[in-house]
Amino acid sequence: MDRATGPVPVARSRRPRSSATPYLFLLPGVAIFVIAIIWPALQAFRMSFYHWQIMAGAISQWIGVDNYVRAFRDPAFWLSLSNSGIYMLATVIPQMAIGLFIAVLLKRRSPSQPLFRVLYYLPVITSWVVVSLLFKYLFADRGLVNFTLHDFLHLMHSDVSWLSERGTALIVICLLGIWKGVGWSMMIYLAALQGVPESLEEAALVDGAGPWQRFRAVTLPAINPATVFLSVMLVIGGLNVFASVELVTGGGPVGQTDVVLSYMYTQAFRYLDFGYGSAIAVILAVLVFVLAVLQLRITRDRGEELA
């Protein structure tokens, strides 16, 4: 053996990693998801076929699809569903449009940009309880809005009872939803705008495209995935509105501003009709799933046409 070169080191064979290791890391999260989401959902689906009794020892009676038939024949359910639809339609488009407008304004770097980002995003991280009670105070009969419009600016002949009529109460709830959600849409769009390649905009500028033409032909197609994501999430969130309605109007007057979740909550936890409440929850879940699938399919087909 040549002493200059020394002994040749022997390569150590690496121990193969167990294929089960990734699943062991996923197991706690999956277990929590099954226990907290899947199992309660399956239980609610089962309860919807019973006249469910919560008293110890009481026997729940199987009634089949009677709870679903009752829901489709219930005028109060259809009213709550229409209120949910109105809220969704009145909040989704404004949140996306205003959020995109603000994101475009904040795209350019400036010393004040971080401050404005925080200010616009602050309502998003504020508790629903806090902002709902704030709006309830602002639009009370002797609240700040009436004082400003009637006593200060003299734009109205008398105070408006905003929360005592279905139309005006829904306006207040929709304004709250828009104000609280614009910051989230702004952040999603801002992240998408920062990912648009500058070379595309420069090429369009060289071709003589104006600001609006560049925005419509270059920016909007580039941020289309963010638009699809936002539209789906906001539609789901709009149909699942609950806290603001419960805290601002409580479904009043006389259930006129109830949405699907607040009506479900009333039936299940105030009247203890858990079977009927579960049926309403299942109907809403199916409706949300169908709308989400339709949205994804429509946007995908439109994206393929543009491509």
Automatic annotation (TrEMBL):
It comes from Galbitalea soli. The keyword Ribonucleoprotein does not apply. It holds the Pfam family BPD_transp_1. Gene3D superfamilies: MetI-like. Keywords: Cell membrane, Membrane, Transmembrane, Transmembrane helix, Transport. The lineage of its organism: Bacteria, Bacillati, Actinomycetota, Actinomycetes, Micrococcales. This is Sugar ABC transporter permease. One of its GO terms (biological process) is transmembrane transport. It is a multi-pass membrane protein. The chain crosses the membrane at residues 20-42, 85-106, 118-140, 160-179, 222-243, 274-294. Belongs to the binding-protein-dependent transport system permease family.
